[in-house]
Write a structure and sequence with these properties.
380 residues, 2 domains, 9-stranded mixed β-sheet, two-stranded antiparallel ribbon, 13 helices, 38% helix, 22% strand
């Protein structure tokens, strides 16, 4: 399928990847095509728009530029039209279109680390409905800096049910899947192996005996410097911005003694990662434990675990700070979920642009000010 060496970020074929969407509006009285409304919305999000009124204002200000590229003989759509159309698109079908687009602009590279993690859109709740805040699980290609797909966590459910559905839409063969402790489930590990991928899964105390056994193994081993254990070791040091960070990894292939080893499909190694951080004369040390289907190569697993946190820093943080996602009140029907997909699409396009050495925040501003740059981003 596509993990992931980007070929092009052209949006020339944007509409064709969403041509399976149903337009629930009646043909009579319909003034704007669905594809045009989606294109306008994406352009507006790239240029800094956050809500329906922002998108409509962008369409009005850029009406001449848009009219040269889209069918706007009836003028730009209103905020009510944009809201109604985007909110009534079936979210599952819209997310599928996003995956189709990602497939079209990239090609597969074996060994890609795919981080899976969830994020809550905190202000998307509706107290009058009542409706809980939207929670979305995303898949992130760590090396290529691309969001691959997303899955909504259903009401009264959790990430454990969303992760298998997310994996099903992805061709992960030859890739390495990393998930935090919520997704460390026997069934999920089995699905990853069945899909011909490998896994690195975090352990916490809520895994009960497994976490305790792995922790005890490394605690006992450290007492004798692991002399009697098949343990691989690696260490990295980073200095900069007033801090020093040392990361250490101990990885063992000794897994058969684990009480539940036979339940975990493909299990080959257990991992201890230690993060030691020095800032302003303060020292903090944190240890985390993992299980993996990979061979016991400490340097490789240290890199993989570190790369997993890119989904927090380069996706979740960026969506909150640069796109103000946490402040979005869009929530009616499928509007919140569909706008999340459009923000993911916009973030992918901004990250893949190599022509301007600007921050993502400045790229969004430039897209709003510079029509040539916006056209370049979307392939107009």
């Amino acid at each position: 399928m596509f993990y992931l060496q980007v070929i092009t970020n052209s949006m020339n074929c944007f509409a064709e990847h969403f041509d399976h969407l149903d337009d629930v509006r009646r043909d009579q009285g319909k003034l704007h095509q669905l594809a045009d409304i989606l294109t306008i919305t994406l352009c507006a999000v790239l240029a800094g728009a956050e809500g329906w009124d922002d998108i409509a204002t962008f369409a009005q200000v850029k009406a001449d530029w848009l009219r040269a590229r889209l069918d706007l003989k009836h003028g730009p759509p209103s905020s009510d039209t944009i809201r109604r159309v985007v909110a009534t698109i079936k979210a599952e079908a819209f997310a599928k279109g996003f995956v189709r687009w990602v497939e079209s602009v990239a090609r597969k590279v074996d060994g890609e680390v795919i981080a899976i993690d969830g994020k809550t859109l905190r202000r998307s709740y509706d107290k009058d409905d009542p409706k809980a805040a939207l929670h979305i699980v995303s898949a992130w290609a760590c090396q290529q800096h691309l969001i691959l797909a997303q899955e909504k966590v259903k009401t009264k459910s959790n990430e454990i049910t969303a992760i298998p559905a997310l994996l099903e839409v992805l061709d992960v063969a030859g890739c390495i899947i990393t998930i935090d402790a919520m997704g460390t489930q026997v069934e999920i590990a089995g699905q990853i192996i069945d899909q011909e991928a490998d896994y690195v899964l975090a352990l916490k105390a809520n895994q009960g005996n497994l976490h305790a056994q792995v922790k005890e193994y490394f605690v006992d081993g450290a007492k004798e410097a692991y002399r009697k254990m098949p343990v691989s070791y690696a260490e990295t040091t980073d200095i900069g911005h007033g801090r020093k960070e040392i990361r250490r990894a101990w990885v063992s292939s000794d897994v058969e003694w684990l009480a539940a080893s036979s339940r975990w499909s493909g299990l080959k190694s257990i991992v201890l990662i230690e993060h030691e951080r020095y800032t302003n004369e303060k020292v903090s040390v944190e240890q985390r434990y993992y299980i993996s289907s990979l061979d016991a190569q400490a340097d490789k697993l240290l890199r993989i675990v570190r790369s997993h946190w890119g989904i927090e820093n380069k996706v979740h943080w960026v969506l909150d700070v640069v796109f103000q996602e946490d402040q979005s009140r869009i929530r009616r029907e499928d509007g919140g979920q569909n706008m999340a997909v459009l923000r993911h699409l916009a973030l992918n396009l901004l990250r893949q642009d190599q022509t301007k050495r600007l921050s993502l925040r400045m790229k969004r501003k430039r897209a709003g000010w510079d029509e040539g740059f916006l056209a370049q981003l979307i392939g107009f």
